[in-house]
Amino acid sequence: MRFSFLSLLRNAFSAHRDWPEQWRSPEPKPAYDVVIVGGGGHGLAAAYFLAAEFGIRNVAVVERGWIGGGNSGRNTTIVRSNYLLEDSEALYDHSLKIWENLSQTLNYNVMFSPRGILMLAHGHHDVQSFTRHLHANRLAGIDSEWLSPEEARAFCPGLNISKDIRYPIGGATLQRRGGVARHDAVVWGFARAASALGVDILQNCEVTGIRRGPDGAVTGLDTTRGAIATRKIGVSAAGHTSVVLEMAGLGRLPLESTPLQALVSEPLKPLISCVVMSNTIHAYISQSDKGDLVIGAGTDQYVSYSQTGGLQITAHTLDAICELFPHLRRVRMMRNWGGIVDNTVDRSPILGPTPVPGLFVNCGWGTGGFKATPGAGHLLAATIARGEAHPIAAPFGLDRFARGRLIDEAAAAAVAH
Ligand code: FAD
Ligand code: PYC
Q1: 162 and 310 share a domain?
Q2: CATH code for the domain of 63
Q3: Is the CB of 369 under 6 A from ligand 1?
Q4: Residue that terminates a domain, selected from 283, 312, 344
Q5: What is the pLDDT of residue 6?
Q6: Dmax (CA) of the chain
Q7: In the predicted structure, residue 306 carries a pLDDT above the cut 90
Q8: Are 281 and 122 spatial neighbours (Cβ–Cβ below 8 Å)?
Q9: In terms of domains, do 340 and 260 share one?
Q10: Cβ of 259: how many Cβ atoms within 10 Å?
Q11: Which of 71, 75, 173, 342 to mutate to test the pocket of ligand 2 (most atoms within 8 A of CB)?
């Protein structure tokens, strides 16, 4: 069923009660050509592109809970591509270009809103580091502008540019093509489009084991809904990736899983029309279309699988937000939550084949993988279909840790670290 003006009108006459289910919920088949572990945005996008672009439709996505119940449904939805190094610029801009037409591609409104990302520089060191990013971005053809404090305030009215605060603003970079999207809609849009192409989405289906044959190659998976045979597995399990890959005997991965928190306020009239991020004081804010202020914090500084996190982290973030936007001091917060993010030492993802034949991985997106959802899914699909890393993904292989060829994006990703 395609969404169109006519179908919306027709369904309006039955108070929208007659829409068919958006994706199928089949029983698992005994075997698939490819199984994707993890029904977040990345896993569903990979399954969609396998079917849509590479003609591989006998695919299952196995999700231990419900689709989008992990970080895909818990993040603050910031989308941008203003990273420092060429490999990362190519990776994140590949994704941003897909975002720009994603609603049309999926025939599903993912509410991508390129409202501009303002990244605040506090102090001399920040100004130097941000201008270095800006020049690197422009050399790579990625849009970035420098704004003085006054220009930043004109772009984002209400921003406190007083010199008398703890971290005065020395300027800001602006990526106009960056913005936000509706996280649930991204998950649902990919699920619906993948299911329509024949992909089986298996919820409440936890992977408990990965089977390998005498030659070491994968032969299938054990799940809480039975065994599934397959020769190709793509793992896109975010904070649980190391746990899943250990099932294939891959040993310890260079990943640390930590909680990352966010919170939302009561709904307000339109107040903040762009996204504002401050790496230095670990705070970022935007306003959802419902009117809630969406606020994010830094990671909790300990390894944990708790999806809550420590209250002192959010208190610290609210201190920063109140300093940047003093008129928000009396706004009430409605709820906060956490997700488990998988951080690598260089704050860049891991995407590619593994030493186990037939086993592919997409992880390590840490605090910054929402923006990469369509791009990472596309690159994982291409890598699985061809059996070797897509050229854009190639620098991000697991082997870079052994070779010492790290892609250090700590500064570009640092808002939440
Ligand atoms: P997930 O959505 O977590 O999906 C992984 C899935 O794997 C989960 O649904 C999980 O249940 C499933 N799984 C795990 N183990 C198993 C198993 N054994 N069997 C079957 N299934 C399993 N990124 C940005 O770019 N911008 C932001 O503004 C941003 N803000 C963030 C704010 C917060 C609070 C958090 C927590 C993260 C934020 N991120 C942001 C990061 C971003 O959310 C993630 O990098 C991204 O969503 C990862 O998507 P995913 O599909 O890989 O993971
Ligand atoms: O990667 O842009 C980002 C981000 C913002 C908030 C959390 N991650």
Answers
A1: yes
A2: 3.50.50.60
A3: yes
A4: 344
A5: 94
A6: 68
A7: no
A8: yes
A9: yes
A10: 24
A11: 75
pLDDT single digits (tens) 376-404: 999 999 999 999 999 999 999 999 999 99
Tell me the CA distances in angstroms from 8 to 24, 45, 108, one per residue in order. 21, 25, 12
What confidence score (pLDDT) does residue 252 get?
85
- Please state the pTM of the whole predicted model: 0.97
34 beta partners: 59
Whether 314 is in the pocket of ligand 2, judged by its Cβ within 6 Å, is: no
Q: Provide mean pLDDT across the span 265-289.
A: 95
Q: In whole angstroms, what is the distance from residue 229 CA to residue 245 CA?
A: 17
For residue 211, pLDDT beyond 90? yes
- Ligand 2 close to Cβ of residue 261 (< 6 A): no
- Whether 181 is in the pocket of ligand 1, judged by its Cβ within 6 Å, is no
The number of the ligand 1 atom at minimal distance from the alpha carbon of 262 is 34
Among residues 326, 344, 362, the one where a domain terminates is 344
Does ligand 2 lie within 6 Å of residue 282's CB atom?
no
Residue 39 C-alpha to ligand 1 middle, in angstroms?
A: 9
